[in-house]
Amino acid sequence: MHFTNKIAGILAIATAMTAPVLAQTTIVAPSGSAQGTYMDYMKTVYDRGTGSDLLQVPLATFDKNFELTPMAAQSWSQSEDGLTWTFKLQPDLVWSDGEPLTAEDYIFALQRAATSGYDFAWYWDFAGGIKGWKEVTEGTADVSTLGLKAVDEHTIEVTTVAPKPYFPSVTSLWYPVPKHVVDKLGDDWALNVDTIVSSGPFDIESWEKSNNSVVLTKSDTYKGPWQAQVDKVELDPTLNAPEVGLPAFLAGDADYTFLNAGQVPVAEARFADGMRRNAVFATSYISYDLESEPFNNVDVRRAFYYAVNRDELTSTVLKDIAIPAGSILPPGYPGYNKDIAAEAVFDPEKAKQFMADAGYPNGEGFPDIEIWIRDEGGYNGAIIPPMAQYLQSQFKEVLGINMSIRSLPNADWMDGLRGAKNNIFIAPYEYDYLDPSNFYGIFYNGGRHNYHVPEYDALVAQADSESDPEKRLDLYAQAEQVMIDQGLIVPLVHPITTAVLSDKLGGDASTPNDLGFTPLDRLAHYFFTHLTKQ
Amino acid sequence: MLGYILRRLVSVAVTFIVVSLIIFLMMHSIPGGPFDANDMPVSEAVRAKLMAQLGLDQPLYVQYFRYMWGVLHFDFGVPYQSPGETVLQLLSRAWVPSLVLGGLGVLIGAPLGILLGMAAALNRNSWIDYIASALATLGLTVPVFVTSMLLILIFAVWLNWLPASGWPDPERWILPVAAYAAIPLATYARYTRAAMLDTMSRQFVTVLRAKGLSERRIIFQHVLRNSAIPLVTVFLPMFIGTATGSIFVEAMFRVPGLGAYFVSSIEVRDYPLEMALMLMITFMYCIAYLLSDVVYALINPRIRIGGAE
Hints:
The complex is a heterodimer. Chain A has helices spanning 3-22, 52-55, 103-115, 121-126, 133-137, 167-170, 179-185, 242-250, 263-270, 298-306, 310-315, 338-342, 348-357, 378-399, 410-418, 436-441, 454-464, 469-485, 524-529, and strands at 26-29, 60-62, 68-70, 73-78, 84-89, 148-152, 155-159, 202-208, 213-218, 232-235, 256-259, 275-279, 282-288, 322-324, 369-374, 403-408, 424-430, 489-501, 505-506, 532-533. Chain A is an alpha+beta fold. In chain A, strands 11, 12, 13, 14, 17 and 18 form a six-stranded antiparallel β-sheet that branches. A four-stranded mixed β-sheet of chain A has the order 1-10-9-8, with no helix packed on it. Chain B is mainly alpha-helical. The longest helix of chain B has 36 residues, at 87-122. The interface between A and B is large, with 36 and 44 residues.
């Protein structure tokens, strides 16, 4: 054989042998929403480009068991008075253009958010409680008065208005913004793939703006914790709808897909090993106007509390899309208390007794009521309307009352809730940050519900700033007991999502957590960095 | 003829202005604005700042004239939902997939529909006619997302011949084009059948037969030409309707096209894009009908436009 032929032959064999090793691993996943303006989480949350959170490294984030894990921050500490937090950054973090990532980039992100109409600005007040935040966002104080300071290149100091023992978990949504790029290009840096720089486990390769789908690649400059184990991730919001996602999954075009209730049995029969469930950290509950008839009577509220058969509800009309809720906190959420959840039982006799005590034996003399629900998409859209109809018949049967249902657009519903324009509502709430104070805060002193229950408020305020974790959870449990005793709400259900995963996917992120749930892309940082593909 | 076209162009301009006014007023009479949709709305101070940045703090008539002045200079503004580009850039980007898929759908569906209609008309009341009519009725009555689902189920999931969805590889075009083709195919089959039956019952066809012309010449040279008028009427409007994308087909087949913008621009109160899309559609329909009328005159000697010569 001629020498060059030999070489060519050897090369051909070598190429053939190395090809499988060199083959790129790409995960195609449903994720994001179809509209995205800026690829910058700290510019807009509601209209963000898909994957903008994966491009940057937050100070800390959650693993699949919802344990807080340091990311850009190496460590943190709280001052004696509990008002100041100090975060030490990892020393060797860089932007994808080679510039060092510094404390200044994190501070700048929040300073800009406080002054430029950030749609998520309320979070840093409500959850973060950063000193001066309210005044700066309202334009009555200068940005320099914010409780944020870069002590040196790698040290961030945050001052809060009250002790916030859970502040580190709030930083899971604190991403850096490349100040050196914004200085040059302004906010437009986040509009084009060519000018976007990243600090996290992924870089961006392409962005289809018509549907906000992106192709991300494993970063070669990111040296922090949790590096990507695949070469590429394609995040495609057009796969979100199970009606589109499942056919694409079956045809091999997607590595996993969410399922609607009708698809679950079909998928279960074919891919038993690939089925994954997740409890969304959300709760649907009944709330009232506590000031007006007939719900200003605690016995009426207690009657409603005992009149709901959650097990029947979630095994029939809400099969595969919700699980019973006995507490405002969902299972797995920090502070979730099994004993409290167990108090929410279906007890028609008790319910009838409470109605009689309230002066409405068998519902006699009880006014006709109208329950207000809001027009919803997503999981709430599948859950709330049928649930309202179920409750309508159950309340008729158990309590002997007539309840009609009215569905309103979001703004009108919110207005009705805040302005007490109706006396009974079904309200859904999904968490914004992982701490019990989030859920208890919505009933706190005129919060989302305009509730003012002094006993409850005192316990929640005390718990919010308690630094001993055990004492703190105990205080929250006491607060929830007040809610139960006074019948402030009726917890109904927690939504669950069901997905099916391809058997090509592996890694820690593809298996359920300690509670049997698989959070998938709800924990995007953990999920996409702990996923492998054959 | 030229005078007629000029007069029609003037009426196009008037239509355009009237439509722009109606759309603008309707758009702004829907409650809520671009910053009201979030669960946790921005504060009043922030909202006012954002509204001023977009010029939405101005009186409505100022906003209208400002926008229309821009339109005269081919400046349709910057879409709120994609601030990195102009409306025109967005349209030229997102229209490509819709034009390719919808356009191919019409260009393939229409001739097939004509053939089907001809087959039905020439074999009236035979099984061919029944099958063709059933197909045409199904094509018009089955919603396009059902057709899409069936196509995906059969050809991608069961037979595994084709990819289920996606863009841009050409093999991914086949199923959406087929879904798009169903409507022109059905429409054309019905129109062609009806028009041909009508023409074939005319006296001149009997005369042609009596003169001994071959059946083939009668059908292709005389019947078809005389049956073409209704086909011309529907072609351009149908082309525009299909080639601007369907939100259903594009969602089912994951096509990054224009269809979704028709809905999202209203949903998120993206005023510049909403106006631009509506004006574009209005303009295209006006021109399409004008062209159709001109083509009538060219193919049918009985129609003389431009007055009584």
